[in-house]
């Protein structure tokens, strides 16, 4: 197992390096000049001042030199500064990331509990009313875009019924997590709905596949209670595909929360990404993109490790 992990680490490191190259050079080929957002309209006609500013920011250096300085600074923990505001990017991430993680982790927990529960119930009660209801939830969850579902629940629960706040993370006098909970319910539900549908379908199909295996029939023939057959024999062996989905989903939730954070005025990393893209703030775009891509790569690494622990045949391959 140790050799398997070492092989995966040796593959992951060069992939991180390749991702950083792709992120850096993709941004550099953008036709938008960030200097235009820094210079005032009066100074935009002064070519000498613009060139001096470009030289000061290192934008006149060859691309490979800019990349070298950028990646070395990141390796030393210096993420650079926002061109637009001058604020350290590390400070932006430190301020914004906790809100996004709070939203994403809540959505992941919510979707895992509901999706896996409905998937197991749907497999156990195949072709029943519960099964048809769960399958319809799965189809609706995959078909409706997250932003549209978010707008629907705002209209129902915030505007029509007035049960929950429309948006924002913190209201006046909010101190603890429980104070912020009403603000968290709608955006986490909007973010979790599509994930519930995916987990429901994967859990149901995986459970149905395992329930038809010979070892499940053998367990039943021994007189083991049905609930033990379902949870200790079937669900345990059906857990592999579900864990893979969960491991990949958290970094995707962090990166995919941009639209939901915008709809619900949630002050997370998604709002920082949207603002940096709108203003062509290249340093912030590069660091946040690299952060999300690295998180997905690390999730892939964890998926390989979890799969190898669940199935020894993967280690032998």
UniProtKB/TrEMBL annotation:
Task: Please give the superkingdom of this protein's source.
Answer: Bacteria
Q: Does the keyword Membrane apply?
A: yes
Main localization category: membrane
Cross-referenced Gene3D superfamilies: MetI-like (1.10.3720.10)
Which biological process terms from the Gene Ontology are attached to this UniProt entry?
A: transmembrane transport
Its localization reads: Cell membrane
PROSITE patterns referenced in this protein's UniProt entry, alphabetically: ABC_TM1
* Domain ABC transmembrane type-1, chain residue ranges per copy: 97-303
Give the species. Answer: Neobacillus bataviensis LMG 21833
Q: How does it sit in the membrane?
A: Multi-pass membrane protein
Keyword Protein biosynthesis among record annotations: no
Query: Which residues are listed as membrane-spanning?
Result: 9-29, 105-124, 136-164, 184-203, 238-264, 284-310
Keyword field: Cell membrane, Membrane, Transmembrane, Transmembrane helix, Transport
Query: What protein is this chain from?
Result: Peptide ABC transporter permease
Please provide one cellular component term from the Gene Ontology annotations of this protein.
plasma membrane
Which family does the record assign?
Belongs to the binding-protein-dependent transport system permease family.
Q: Which InterPro entries match?
A: BPD_transp_1_N, MetI-like, MetI-like_sf
Q: Which Pfam family name is an example for this entry?
A: BPD_transp_1
């Amino acid at each position: 197992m140790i050799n398997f992990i070492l092989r995966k680490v040796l593959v992951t490191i060069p992939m991180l390096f390749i991702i950083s190259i792709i992120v850096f050079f993709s941004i550099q080929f953008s036709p938008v000049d960030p200097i235009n957002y820094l210079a005032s309209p009066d100074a935009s006609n002064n070519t000498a001042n613009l060139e001096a500013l470009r030289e000061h920011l290192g934008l006149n250096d060859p691309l490979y030199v800019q990349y070298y300085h950028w990646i070395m600074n990141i390796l030393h923990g210096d993420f650079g500064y926002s061109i637009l505001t001058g604020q350290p990017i590390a400070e932006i991430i430190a301020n914004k990331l906790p809100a996004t993680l709070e939203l994403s982790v809540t959505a992941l927990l919510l979707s895992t509990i509901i999706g896996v529960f409905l998937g197991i119930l749907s497999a156990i009660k195949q072709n029943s009313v519960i099964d048809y209801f769960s399958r319809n939830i799965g189809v609706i969850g995959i078909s409706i875009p997250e932003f549209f579902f978010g707008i629907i629940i705002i209209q129902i629960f915030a505007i029509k019924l007035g049960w929950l706040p429309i948006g924002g993370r913190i209201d006046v006098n909010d101190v603890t997590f429980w104070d912020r909970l009403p603000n968290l319910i709608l955006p986490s539900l909007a973010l979790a709905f599509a994930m519930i549908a995916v987990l429901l379908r994967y859990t149901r199909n995986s459970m149905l596949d395992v329930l038809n295996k010979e070892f499940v029939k053998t367990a039943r023939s021994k007189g083991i209670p049905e609930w033990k057959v379902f949870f200790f024999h079937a669900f345990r062996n059906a857990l592999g595909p579900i864990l893979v989905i969960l491991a990949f989903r958290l970094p995707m939730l962090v990166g995919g929360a941009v639209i939901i954070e915008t709809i619900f005025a949630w002050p997370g990393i998604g709002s920082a990404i949207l603002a940096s893209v709108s203003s062509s703030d290249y340093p912030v775009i590069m660091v946040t993109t690299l952060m999300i891509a690295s998180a997905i790569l690390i999730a892939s690494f964890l998926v390989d490790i979890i799969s190898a622990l669940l199935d020894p045949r993967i280690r032998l391959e």
